[in-house]
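Database export, one record per block. Field names are fixed; values are copied verbatim from the stored entry.
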Amino acid sequence: MSKLKIILDEAAGEGLISSTQAERLLPYLTGKNIGVLPTAEDLSAPRSLDDSNPLEDTEAPRFVRGFHDVLITIGVIVLLVGLWGLASRYVSLLAIVVLAEILVRRQRLALPAVVLTIALVVWLFHTVVSYVTSTPVLGNNFTIGAFVLVAPFPLLLALFYWRYRVPLSLALFLFSLFGLFLATVFYVAGTVTGSTNVPVDYPIQTLMILLVTALGSFALAMRYDLSDPQRVTRRSDVAFWLHLATAPALLYSTVLLALRLELAGSGTVFTNLTDALFGGYLQAVTVLVAVLAMMLIGLVIDRRAFVTAGLVSLGLATAAILRHNDAGLDKVGFLVLMIVGLVVLVIGIGWADLRRIIVRRLPAGMQARLPALR
């Protein structure tokens, strides 16, 4: 029942108009677009059909309308965990679908919708990984195994979004397409080169492919973002989730590629990010510069995901620099915590002021397309 019909029925109940007049007014007012709101399935629909968030609260989707949502979500999580331990995985899938029909399609509860979407992804990931690891041909060949692992995600997430219109499911569907693209590239590369593990055999080329894919995901997220600079529709929700997944992918593909190229030039080999950071002063500075650049991007586009994605790397790089400057080992940990905490507080408290300082120095045409300053 539409909100307009409820209002007209209440007016008839109070004797302001007759029931016949209420029935005749409903199609007339609807035809004039009075009291008509976009449907919840439309990406251009407001996040909440009840009210719209003020500008300062529009970066993240609105999850909770009341403690009712929290209580329902706790029940969903506890029920699914219990079913996961007691019943078969297909019973868990059935429970996810039934709960989605009730809580998402009928009641449109945002927080349970997010949890059920994540539960579906976890269920699918566990199922596919179990199949791949139990199949020797796939488990021993990364190139083929990765393709089989990623292939089901776009289809299932597309069906989930088509049925329930959850912005997170659309964002994960789009992100899974980039994963499928990566798997396809590795499959083709493995077929051409005869390699069964392309990332290990061709690390620099792999990191280049990862960086290009992350840039493509970032461009897609920005397309959704720039289509709704005021962040009043569900397009902004999709952009939020895409940025949340893209920020760490973009940061670490850039950092690892830069470090790999630096260390390859010096004849040094590293096995992970921590070894690279503590391997030399230059590497730590490189990571620090990359993290600061990501934070700058986050300020410009008004997305805090680009700040939070680099906090671990910021801490590691800061610790490496302090150690190379002979800071006492007993003080390094506390100094790192203090510095990272100060950075987070300065950026968090001064977010609006820092954005204003940076964005106002950009060309006018670019400013007009970015989220409004406040």
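Remark 1: The chain has 19 helices and no strands.
Remark 2: The longest helix spans residues 234-265.
End of record.
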